Batch of 4 targets.
Target 1
Amino acid sequence: MVKLELINSPSGEAPLAKEHDLDRMGAVIDEVRDWLAARQADDGHWAFELEADATIPAEYIMLNHYLGEIDEDVEGKLANYLKETQGKHGGWPLYHDGDFNLSVSVKAYLALKLAGEDIDAPYMRWARKAILENGGAARANVFTRFALALFGQVPWRAVPVIRVEALLLPKWAPFHIDKVSYWSRTVMVPLKVLAALKPRARNPRGVNIAELFVKPASKHLFYLNNPTGKFWGWVMLGVDYLARALEPLMPKSLEKKGIEKAMEFVTERLNGEDGLGGIFPAMANALMAFDALEYPQDHPDYVICRKAIDKLLVLHDDWGYCQPCLSPVWDTGLAAHAMLESGLTDDHPVMAAANEWLLGRQILDVEGDWKANRGYVRPGGWAFQYWNDYYPDVDDTAAVVMALHRANPEKYAEAIARGAEWVIGMQSQNGGWGAFDADNDHLFLQNIPFADHGALLDPPTVDVSARCIGMLAQLGHDKSDPVVARGLAYMRREQEDEGSWFGRWGNNYVYGTWSALCAFNAADEDMHARHIRQAVEWLKYAQRPDGGWGEDCSTYWQHRRDEVKTSTPSQTSWALLGLMAAGEVDSDTVSRGIDYLLTAERNGGKWHEEYFNAVGFPRVFYLRYHGYSAYFPLWTLSRYRALKGADTKFPKYGI
């Protein structure tokens, strides 16, 4: 067999693909598999770096200066990272090669100034000019203005009314902490304590950023805005102004009870060295709340909270950054799928260690916050981080259950059954699944001024739902199962007009479409049905001339949904896995995509990928999983090889 070559067709149509050299492909698979195996930890897990935008390293520096705990060596490395990631527009983007973002830029500028950078340096002048041209720091989002209020850079009226007494409200109240997403919950609760106490950052160097305001911050009248532009948004703004007028009348005794309730919540979920909610913003707010309540720095809660934050640092010789969280369960579950796909069996030392590590991470005893809506369901899920018992993740759970099941369904039967039971119990009323909670879709809350980031809730999404359906189908639940039937109906309803599906947790329609096609195939959907063929045609249409696929983070804005800058290994892998799920393994489209992966720049087992490939919150917070460009291409090439030599053209697993 000859190596794949691309030849031009006389009509000027897309190039035609010849057959691949499967021996050469096997050599690539072996090399990548060996590379991945060499990076497995001694206890069996994988954990790759998880990178966000400049916000997190900037906030780490700001946290140090809030507390008066300056670490010049670490902050110097983070400052170098901030300078390196400054965009061509002068400010900082939400993702690699992205547009200017005001809120990220204000935090990055402040962090650099706190770290001792000269404001007359060219990069600081450049950033300052970009910020002022875009309205100045007063126009930054709520979270940024809250941070500026802590540093005394804006008055407290620059942020919405955030009353800690809200934690005392009954569940039937319009606002209750159970009605927002887990990430909002863990961030907001300690934030409410800070809003009540209104502490002032120590700021040992006395840094200010008055130069970033078009007019003095104290003279800016209207900081708040209507986050949705809808009628209820204006109503909520009116409620906020009324609440601000009534604040002086609020009994201090209620505020004290609210603070006690908040800190009870925080300490109960402190989560050891893995931190509150396992995410940096929640941990940082918790640490500042401990400080505001005058906890001594040697208090056990203060110490462990600080340690959890510092574990997020990635430091090199002269640069570094702070991760938003850690992703070992997700990385290990997906890497396990790739390794199994490449030919390893469950008794191979690499797989045996990975499976046992995953088995030990199942949450069987703790009833997390999900019990607010599903209190009758037994625990049984997996978290995203090393440990996060209060917040297991439906997506992780489905992926891990499928990995354990394909490895050895008998050996891991008990863990598989408990995981599936929990996932089934977490199905929302509309048939879909959210990531951490069921029926977390109180959409009216998106109108409150605090919700200007648009990520307050955790409603069902197609990508998570697809993983759940794929898991159930792999375990033997057929389309007659009411849970599966409702899930499939939800997914069909959510299909976009042109055939794709929205991707909530990965960029974007390629990710969602891959997820959906895998689920439909696993559930024995007719893969020649109209909605499936629409999806296939959309993926074929989206293929780039180089054979790959790429979707920019900007596609989360509807008017930019077709924007592409370059093909990436991760997105190409998702598209190919989706097409193969639809039986397209022999198509020219798949052949050209495989050639892209075989010829794309690669360093050992990791393909080169600078562009961000995932989403924290669409239009607000993006991520780059450093492991995606290793295990997804391995998975894809291995599946292609397996299907080319199989009697069937359809994969048999749920993902």
Target 2
Amino acid sequence: MSATPNPPSALDLLHRVFGYAAFRGPQAEIVDHVAGGGDALVLMPTGGGKSLCFQIPALLRPGVGIVVSPLIALMQDQVDTLREAGVRAAFLNSTLDFAAVVETEKALFAGALDLLYVAPERLLTERFLNLLDRLNVAGKLALFAIDEAHCVSQWGHDFRPEYIQLSVLHERYPAVPRIALTATADDLTRREILARLGLEEARVFISSFDRPNIRYTVVERDNPRRQLLDFLAGHAGEAGIVYCLSRKKVDETAAWLVEQGIAALPYHAGLDTATRTKHQQRFLREEGIVMVATIAFGMGIDKPDVRFVAHLDLPKSLEAYYQETGRAGRDGEPAEAWMTYGLNDVVIHRQRIDESEAGEEQKRIERGKLDALLAWCETAECRRTRLLAYFAEAREGRCGNCDTCLEPPEMWDGTVAAQKAMSAALRTGQRFGAGHLIDLLRGKTSERMQQLGHDALPTFGVGADLDEAGWRSVFRQLLAAGLLHADAQAYGALKLTEAARPVLKGETALSLRRQRKAKKSAPAGRWSRQGPSAPADADPALFAALRAWRAEQARAQGKPAYVILNDKTLHELAAHRPASPEALLETHGIGAAKAERYGAELLALIAATC
């Protein structure tokens, strides 16, 4: 009688299926905990390897892993990626016709699936819950993975009502382990995830939120279109995302970029489903597309070679900013997070909160989140250190890869300027916005100024030492510091807060950032690119040949190029030039299934090129 073979270990699967030599960070501990039947909440940055934390336990445990994901438009690519690695994966969502649904359900009950991706709306239907009941009775449920778990938070930027109902999994299947995963969540959101999903007893795994390969830059808004064009000049031919606050601005910006010769596409909820799907597929499958979008685009984007994320408008919070910028540089290669920021952003966001129909508690939380974001925009400290501190992660020293580290801002004693600005607001009855107050301070005579009698005020012309941009910077920083408040009920009129009194009376000094001179962004390559890059001994000709081969494969199969092989794998092939199937399997990202499918062609191409 032959001995029963030992079941594969997590490390065996990691190498044989996914082609990776070792786990990163806490991955091994998470996999071991969930595979052993434990519940977990995993906070790990985008590109940190969250998916492996539930994919490998699902392969180790009997039955099928059910992955709850809100990303219907991306499920096909996620499943294609797994199938390329030899994993038996499928999805159920509204894009499938009835025949395809029945076929997938049959495979599910036949034990022919390792992982099934499903949208929360589908999971919560009585039909699907009945399917889960039958699987559970048969002992065929390996685990539940709840991806993008921050969607459960009503205070968050991606709230999905269906996520709150996912507590049914704990109530209905208490013996099935659950793992909730997200790339971003402050302490409040973490507590809400644990409570709403019934994960109070779960182990919490928090990885470093640091993305050292991303450079953070915030520029004071001057001429945003020109500034954006200057920035994009350093990323010619590269894929990226440009975020705007409104649908109208998305459409106008995308059309304008096309006029400038840039391959740009719009994406927002106002477009029909077919257009959104087409644009998203082009972004994922073509090289060098720039997607101009509202926040309707991006969550869960798996494209690893997004080289930049630009914001033309201020996001709602630091969590939203971190989540959106995290879509850049998933491959670990250098990437940029760039944002224009101005006085109007502060006024608009404060008005949005004040005028919303939310309860006072939610408004208080949203104001706190906005204040944290504004303080980050105005900081003279290392941006990375301040960003990580928001997520309760300490970091020593300056990062050397953000604008405030590379060009430390000049600080100045802005006490007198602040007093002049606040006096101007007081003497005009706290009824005017920044534009009128700046004209008043600079002594700009106009018919309206004379009609109001403001040209006779003691503050008229006392700020002639600063230009308009300088005063806008002062008012922006006073708003960000909470010394002034934009009153939504009074059309954005600036009013003093209690915190302004000590500064106005000269009891407290105020240090401000000096307004920077507008300048063009440095061309790509001028700044030191941090993070992994192509090995020094990689053969450029071979890399180009491999890239062309990959593009051909992607076109033939109708899949994104990175699903076939990612850039890091191509770089390693170009550097190590494997000459045998065994050597090929030692390459990062090539497991047994990919070696079997593409090995002969890759080895022949390498031999011919070298």
Target 3
Amino acid sequence: MDRDLSPATAPDFSDGILIGAAVLIGCVSALMVPVWRRLLTPLVGDAGGLVLAVLLAGAGIGFITARRFGSEGRALPSVGFAIAALAVALPPALGDRVATLALLLRPLASAGGALRSLADALPGMVLALPASIVLGALLSRLVAGREDQAPGVGHLLAVPLGAAAGVVACNVGLLPALSIAGTWRASVGLLAAGAITSAIRDGRARRRAFFAVALSSLAVGACIAGGPTTFWLHGGVGVAGTERGLLSASFDDRNDLRRQMAEQRRALLWAIDGVGSGVAFERSGCGYRLDGVPNGGLRDAPGDAMSGLIGAALHPAPRRVLVLGLGSATSAGWLATSPEVERVDVVEHEPALERIADLCAPLHHDVLSNPKVHLIRDRTAATLRSTSETYDLILAPRFDPEIVEAAARRLEPGGLFLQRARDAGEARTALEATFPAIEPWRVQASGLLLIAGRESPRHDLDRIRDLVSQPPYRAALDWLWGVEGVAGFYSGSRADVPPAGTGGVDWAAVADARQARELAWGLLPANLNVTTSRESARRAFQQGDLRRALVDWRLAGGEPRGPLDRLLLAESSAELSDDRVQEMAEALRVTRPAEAAAVLARRHARRREPNEATDRLLAAFHAARESPWAHPPTLQRALDLAGELAAEDPRLGARLFAALAEPFALGLLDDGRLRARVRLTGSTGCARAFAAFEPHPPWEEDFLRRRQRCYESANHQLEGRAARDLRTFRDATPPRLEDGLLPEED
């Protein structure tokens, strides 16, 4: 029979064991702080301060509560250790439920003020507060003496000693070695081991020992069976609803939420725990995510590449360049192709980004094998403090006010500091304290470039005119901005007045190039009813209305003023089978071979020449596998055209299906390619097309219905799962007025 032991009859545990238990609590607390920070950052943004606040508050609550209501004396609380293990294990084991809570709170965060603080604090409280309270209570029991006995020095020092051990373990690489999930499970295991050890030594309290072992087993089982998910760590919950967001901060029903979850899980090829952040590599476009925030790849290539090239064009002799961060290596790679640049030093402390750069060679001209490029594996601030090198250009892809002054000391006379920023206000204020001259540029839809120096940049029009007519500037302006020439180059300038030395620039042509470029980026005019015919044509082209684009272009009159205008005219004319398309396509072929072949395919299709159209589509898909710079809307329309041809002749569909087996360069439009294969396949080969989406198929009723019927007809091993998924979708669909009145679609 279990006996309730009073302090007078409690087992005489040695001080060494008690000190060891206190060390364990300190060590687990230190291990879990970076784990909680890593788990919360993808949900609420930078969470370092939040984690410490929750940990201290919870520990204080637990300590005071245990002192106020707990029994006197020190004892080795086996059940307490088990409860702590369960409190540490359960919140992350809930997985997507915690991420969903954070996503539901994003609209509150967007309101700002106290509501933002509440929205950020609640996930942190769910994740870390229960464990902090229990650990604080344990700490109170272990280091506090009886009323007639003061705690020993060993007890008071044991907890910080354990915390120091945990901090050292994290600093020497425990997190990257074990991963976030591994470190979390190790912490649960340590607490469970402490509970079981305590239970064994407290052998006379059999009931308490049984509860300790049972709760410890439950904690271990929870952390083995569950854990942080890809959607949680890399789904972009913390940036939902922002310009960088991958998710909608609101959703219609459970199916809409699950659709977004499936999209984000399917979008990632792999994910690891890096030195300072969680890093995930995207399947399409060579982008990556740091704690859920999307970066790099084709998405950011316009800003990454052009930021360095603009700085190099405005500096009279840019021989030595420092890039603060490798990213996907686009900035360093394009800068290194400039014939004037002799050396590019790149500072990066995250090894995972080297792996990403290696996978993205076509994006940056294989920068890692370029002899001009030298990689410095260190932190940015440490490099700037320790190096004695000076540079003509320093490019900072991410804004950090701490490095601005340090970077200024590393600039040569006449050197330029190139600061990328999404919010010009904060960055400009920080730069103005160090640099007298600042010139703003817009280098992509959501990105600004601030060119700072002790003197204003020199605008040598003769030099710039010569540069933009040659590689790499000509290719960059064409592929990344869809413009050309001096007017195209200055379409990025956001100066309030034309910079000194640019009096010979045709600013009307600059404004037209800026409009074409921003429409290509998807920045449609706010007032869609009052536009010029040329602007309307460009907008219709980006929206896929080719006939309207051609009509509006003809109303506007005039010649195309850039690469995208020529593509607009060629593809829109092909939709109406214009005889001049062949000549237009030939003009495109030099720099845009995939688009040229797609244009000719459309012309043949509209002339009812399906075999010739198929041949041209095959050429377009081959070119898109060779180069990542195809215009995505045009390539997507080529995929749609393949579906039209297959619907008329299944034999053509089989040829196109085979041609789309390999991904395009850098995974460009990978989801569109796979969906096209689903449309192209016949009933006998459909299983291969649908299997490419497993284990996270698009959560859409039509797709799930076709998938279930395909697997059923093929007697596929996933037939049962497909049927359950379709049933789950329909059970979660709200009732509609027309249910039961209209026949079910095939």
Target 4
Amino acid sequence: MADNDLRGNAWVLPPSQYICKRPPAGDVPVPKSFYLKMKDGCRLAVDLYLPGSSPSDGPWPTILVQTPYYRRFAVDPSAGRVEASPNVAKYRDLFVPRGYALVVVDVRGTGASFGTRDIFRSPKERGDACEIVEWIITQDWSNGAIGATGISYLGAASDFLASTSHPAVKAIAPLFSVWDTYLDNYYPGGILLTNLADVYDRMMAGLDQDKRHFLKDFVYYSDPSFRGPQPVDEDHDGSQCAAAIREHDGNFRMPDLMREMEYRSDPLRDGTGYSSDSISPSTYWEGIRKDVAIYSVSGWMDGAGYANGAISRFLTLPNENKFLLLGPWDHGARINCSRWRADELPEFNIFAEILRFFDEHLGGRDTGLAAEKPVHYFSVHEEKWRSADTWPPYEASRTLFLGKDKELGASAGSAGADHHQVNFASGTGKFTRHERIAAIDSREYYTDWNGRDRSMLNYTSAELPRDGELTGHCLVNLWITAPSPDFAIHAYLSEVLPDGETFYVTEGSLRAIHRSETPPPRNYQTPAVFHPCTRSQASNVAPGQPHLFRFSLLPISWTFLARSRIRLSLEGADADHFQRIPATGALGIEVLRGGGNASHIMLPLRMA
């Protein structure tokens, strides 16, 4: 089956039909490229694409894209026809032939731009964004209306731009991007994703310092005809570009940065005052004017929490015109992750929906978007799109208790406990939600899950009498005793078919010292349990004493079929992706059930 927008009746006018009414009106021109000087003297490399044959054909609304991944590559002239802008081409080809000016900028310390990156998503880039907007609105080809979009880093940059409160910014579409960098990306449940920082560091060294031998490991940038960042037009011999690259030697190192951010909101030791808050769009949410239109997009397999970020952005911002789209996709929607997909490539045209959004809120067109529900989501295994007025889309809760004989049942039962010896060598494999986010060219997701839970502590329900849709965050409540003051809990939800085959549904994790809960803060509204993960809130567990661990699994919409069963699997490690806690020694845990310590899971499950 496919993920196209005709599956279900979720849209009044499906995006695929809208874009048919908006064919491109011309070709994409060769960009003009130049340096734009910031107030502190740093020069940023800019590509400018205009939709007409000359600036006098305007003015036009402008889409701004800020990227650390090269606005364009220089290409070996003998290579023939090669796409020089693998990171930007989709925005260029969508917007420019349909009447939008496009401005693409290498953020400071990257590409052909000068400067250094003092931190990931530096607050300095917010200031740069405001200066770039000021320059745009003074140009004859600009009509004074500006939008921004992009995937991942680029999407967060659009949040940063809007948070400057500049009146020219009318609409942003952050795609597959974080809201809180600590919670949504590097430390889900307060546990470090170990490979992510190292892989990102290698990729950015390949780009920022033009170490091309590093890039051969990253499929998006591995074309042997690439020759580093494209110099701007005035830099005929490439000497300015080379000088800019030398300045990048002072860029921060991601592994060092992330390991220093063990506690959320802790200031770094370098005296800058930066923390994980400094690099999170949620910190600056109050700067986003209420009249700015927002479209948040993510996928069910979008890393370790990007869907949480999209949902939180949607719920946090009070803006009147805000939209949420959640599909069966990985990071950037490169792959349809459903086991029942018709093809690995998505059929749903995300950019048709984004074009419609900008046409409505930036281009001044009547697109019919006002007649659509603000929330659209795809229910996996049913393989249909649904719409809703808010998130979560419905109120439903079914509680299943951990019981004797490893059952999930409707009643708590008598008191008991199950011992589990943590297998620190166990892992979830190389077909998980974490691969694409580490820039690995993943094509399959959890296709090897069947049987992987055998070594875990499993609890399985009776057969479901009929189909049931589970949409939202599942809430795990576990009473656990352990001999260690700190450890990790990883929980997995699966569907078990009548023949015993098991399908991965979703997961969640929590570090024991971060079990403290608080109401969600104003800048991170969420229906999930909120753990602040700060140093002040962290506390060791008392060895041998029962403690309650409450945490939410990552959001999902999944239809369980009649006669299938629901399985909760528990483990204390994922050696393939997460930090080992504790760092040494063996660990055995006791999961309590029934009586006064009735461990259970609450499911947003509604039966057909």
